[in-house]
Amino acid sequence: MNISALKEILTGQPNYRQQQVEKALYGDQIEDWSQVIALPEELRRRLAEACPLEIRADDTISGGDSRKALIVLEDGLKIEAVLMMHQGDRNTVCVSSQVGCPMKCAFCATGRLGLKRSLTADEIVEQVLYFARQLKKEHKRVTNVVFMGMGEPMINYDNVMTAIRTLNNPKGFNLGARRISVSTSGIPDGIRKFAREGLEVNLALSLHAPNNELRCKIMPVSTHHSLESVMEALAEYVQLTNRKIMFEYIMIKGVTDGPEQAHELVKLLSGWLGYVNLINYNQTDVFESSTRERIEAFKKILEDGHITVVQRYTFGEDIDGACGQLAARKEIKLD
Ligand code: SF4
User: Fold this and answer.
1) What domains sit in the chain, N to C, each tagged with a CATH number?
2) Distances (CA, A) of 318 to 62, 67, 132, 142, 251
3) Which family does the record claim for this protein (predicted)?
4) How does pLDDT run across 257-301, given as a tens digit for each residue?
5) Are the C-beta atoms of 288 and 253 separated by less than 8 Å?
6) From 30, 128, 295, 311, which residue has the greatest number of CB atoms within 10 Å?
7) Residues of the chain with pLDDT under 50
8) Ligand 1 site: residues with CB under 6 angstroms?
9) Bind-site residues for S-adenosyl-L-methionine
10) Active-site residue flag, 331
11) In this predicted structure, what is the pLDDT of residue 88?
């Protein structure tokens, strides 16, 4: 799919054409311009020539409650997007914001790939459209979008925000802002900017360690932006938005999942407007997964410390498509 020529083609057309096109693309999720009978035939022909709508996906794997797509971009690079189907008609698409990622988190296979480039806003939305078109045929729809795939959204800030506004547009895709979540590894300037967007989009911090020393070991971003500076930016975010923060915490055996870390986490997060999401780590050759017993013990310490905890089932584990580890185990090639 490539709609970069759309603006040029619509130049000189009446204003309502733009709205018709947006509704067709994002609201009706058309796959072919011939489906938009509201547009003049000549315009449809030009659009079909210059703005192909086919989304090329190299490989789609279905496994239980998840589907993974390896989407091929115009320049041949590939990105992964995952659809997670929950009970009760909730269908969440986990999107990538970059091809690869420069943040080099030690537990994340995507980090090991390095950064190829950031995605355009259209390429981000394309991932959602890919699954939206599939679900439409099954009389279902995408109900949630999370920026938890490849890449750090805050360093592709403008394109991520443009994609969010496209998805949120009531005359287009019409996905409520509260149904969109952005996860960051902790870029204070980005968090401050995000706090001032005036959108009710959810914010998650990939925390993964209760102190800066441990965090530096598994998340090099902490050597540039200390945990303290990230928490200061988050405090500003909460003050301005009065919105809860989701603190994502990965359970790696012997590294992040001990009782000492749990007690430290209670100390760090006491009094915060937010909750902790404990994430099972999908074992790789670098780290081991925590055990059920260790996770339960960790959770109990948090709950005894009056911290709200949710535990995310690692969707997509069976297809190597769990968020943050999209390229895990079966190494994917981005080009
Ligand atoms: S966990 Fe997220 S921020 Fe860290 S390397 Fe992986 S994709 Fe990048």
Assistant:
1) 1-54 (no CATH), 55-319 (3.20.20.70)
2) 9, 10, 22, 21, 18
3) Belongs to the radical SAM superfamily. RlmN family.
4) 999 999 999 999 999 999 999 988 877 778 999 999 999 999 999
5) yes
6) 128
7) 315-323, 325-332
8) 101, 103-105, 108, 110-111, 150-152, 185, 206, 324
9) 151-152, 183, 206-208, 282
10) no
11) 81
The residue to mutate among 79, 105, 205, having the most atoms of ligand 1 within 8 angstroms of its beta carbon, is 105
What is the structure's pLDDT at 59? Answer: 64
Q: How far is the CA of 151 from the centre of ligand 1 (A)?
A: 6
ipTM of the complex: 0.99
- Of the listed 51, 80, 123, 126, which one is catalytic? 80
> Could you tell me the distance, in angstroms and rounded to a whole number, from the CA of residue 323 to the centre of ligand 1?
9
Residue 29 one-letter amino acid: Q
Annotated binding site for [4Fe-4S] cluster: 101, 105, 108
125: enclosing H helix or E strand: helix 121-137
User: Could you read off the pLDDT of 89-103 as tens digits, one per residue?
Assistant: 899 999 999 999 999
Length of the chain as a residue count = 335
